[in-house]
Amino acid sequence: MKILVCISHVPDTTAKINFTNGDTEFDANGVQFVINPNDEFGLTRAIWFKEQAGATVTVVNVGGPDAEATLRKALAIGADEAIRVNATPIDGFFVAKQLAEVVKTGGYDLVIAGKESLDYNGAMVPGMLAGLTGYDFVNGCIKLDVTGSDVTAVREIDGGKETISAKLPLVIAGQKGLVEEKDLRIPNMRGIMQARTKALTILEPVAANATTKAVKFEKPAPKSAVKLISPDNLDELVNLLHNEAKVI
Amino acid sequence: MSILIYAESAEGKFKKTAFELASYAKKIAAETGTTVTAVTINISDASALAAYGVDKALNVNTDKLKAFNAKAYADVIKQAAVKESSKFVLFSSNTDSLYIAPLVAVGLEAGYASNVVGLPQSISPLQVKRHAFSNKAFTVTEITTDVKVLAIGKNSFGLVESASSLAQEDFAPSLNDNDFTVKVESSEKVTGKVTIADAEIVVSGGRGLKGPENWGMLEDLASALGAATACSKPVSDLGWRPHSEHVGQTGKPVAANLYIALGISGAIQHIAGINSSKVKVVINSDADAPFFKVADYGVVGDVFDIVPKLTEKIKAFKAQNS
């Protein structure tokens, strides 16, 4: 089984988010970047398939040279090879177009992406990629098993979960549950050394028009300070929730 | 040119978000001088949509679509959009709608913006404000294609009643057998409980509750408020509560009207997941807990003492105001 794992290179959760150039660009200055957490769950599951069932795992990112550190980390964790499509990821559709090209050329059986990225929270690339390649698609996947070309997946639904059967080839948008947090891997020295000699191929982008553009960014208005209510005066809390906040 | 909405339903009844979406669409329709068409799946009578300004319902009734199937549903919506020559196709932010929307966008060669808050800032060019960076910022996104697909954040617009004379039509789109290779084998759903996705109010517990045996008081408060129950990540990691209740960055997002955090310190990953809730209340014994920085109302004190008392107060309030 040939697996492609799509990796977003995103600011760490704890990073301060700032904008520059008149609030039209994200300010990457001093920001630590990581593998998008939803992608990391998928990557770890893919490596499990490699170890248990002899799958090959390729990781791919659409981005600039700065994303290579994130791809090397994925290699150090256990992916076999990496591809970087050398382009600025303008929007979800543009990224999906680039990935679709990689999928078609590489003939992957299983494509795993995170259900959304921590930065733009678009939650659209996996679905668009499925639409563009004609592959079947499971969104919000929290469990994944493959036997031959038969897939059993569990996805989260409002108020529960659903077990799904499907066939390869398939696109999965994954999240926590594909593996548990404790199963995530930290690269060890051997992995880091091996990662240096693994192939990282740089591809030029195919022509594609973006369908959206980020016009500007805004930070939420500063919040007014919390109103503290004494534990002995809970009537006041009920009163505020009813009369001031109007939520009960 | 009609604005198309996908009015999501479950067990033959519209979800509340369908009415919110209709209200939103009506507002854009009024501004642009057009009408609202809803596509419904396995709804025998869509007349409930008339109260929220929907002019036409295209009702698709077939056993083939009884189980959810993203590809087939997307195909249906795409055909409805073509039939109505819609320039706008709108979705709510339910799990199933978010599954379908990117497929529809690709099918219609449309630009797509999710997580949209509030009405468009401009219609031409279309610019919408959306949550990004895990609720730490907003982006104003412009969609540059002719057809536009939007997914509207829950509770970001609200219900606006607007009576219309709804015309209902049976709609029989062509269904492609190739769309049915992904099959639902079984589903597990919590019944008789408000789900986090549908809830107006969410009551959530953290490690400060000390153990799963103490969730009774949280459930009592939730039931007094008609709220859904949720928990922080450590609580689900420890197995005190099921993963389906975990809210936060790697869990479920919450965009409730009221979010009440009991014994949750407010790690940045937790806040990222719940911050689009309108009003946040925290009850915690540690006055320095970061949650107090993002909350609207806070009570510093012992949750075991405060929560049962608060439940009684809420019950009394409900009894008085019902």
Automatic annotation (TrEMBL), chain A:
Q: Which residues form the signal peptide?
A: none
User: GO molecular-function annotation terms?
Assistant: electron transfer activity
Belongs to which family? Belongs to the ETF beta-subunit/FixA family.
UniProt-listed Pfam families: ETF
Q: What is this protein called?
A: Electron transfer flavoprotein subunit beta
- Annotated SUPFAM superfamilies: Adenine nucleotide alpha hydrolases-like (SSF52402)
Locate the Electron transfer flavoprotein alpha/beta-subunit N-terminal domain: which residues? 23-212
GO cellular component terms listed in the entry, alphabetical order:
cytosol
**Listed PANTHER family:** ELECTRON TRANSFER FLAVOPROTEIN BETA-SUBUNIT, ELECTRON TRANSFER FLAVOPROTEIN SUBUNIT BETA
Keywords of this protein's UniProt record, alphabetized?
A: Electron transport, Transport
TrEMBL record, chain B:
| Entries under InterPro entries matching the protein | DHS-like_NAD/FAD-binding_dom, ETF_a/b_N, ETF_a/FixB, ETF_asu_C, Rossmann-like_a/b/a_fold
* Cofactor note (record): Binds 1 FAD per dimer.
Protein name per UniProt: Electron transfer flavoprotein subunit alpha
For this protein's source organism, the top of the classification is: Bacteria, Pseudomonadati, Bacteroidota, Flavobacteriia, Flavobacteriales
* Cofactors that this protein relies on: FAD
Q: Which GO terms describe its biological process?
A: fatty acid beta-oxidation using acyl-CoA dehydrogenase
All residue ranges annotated as the Electron transfer flavoprotein alpha/beta-subunit N-terminal domain in the record: 3-184
Q: Give residues annotated as binding FAD.
A: R207, G263, I264, S265, G266, A267, I268, Q269, H270, N284
UniProt superkingdom = Bacteria
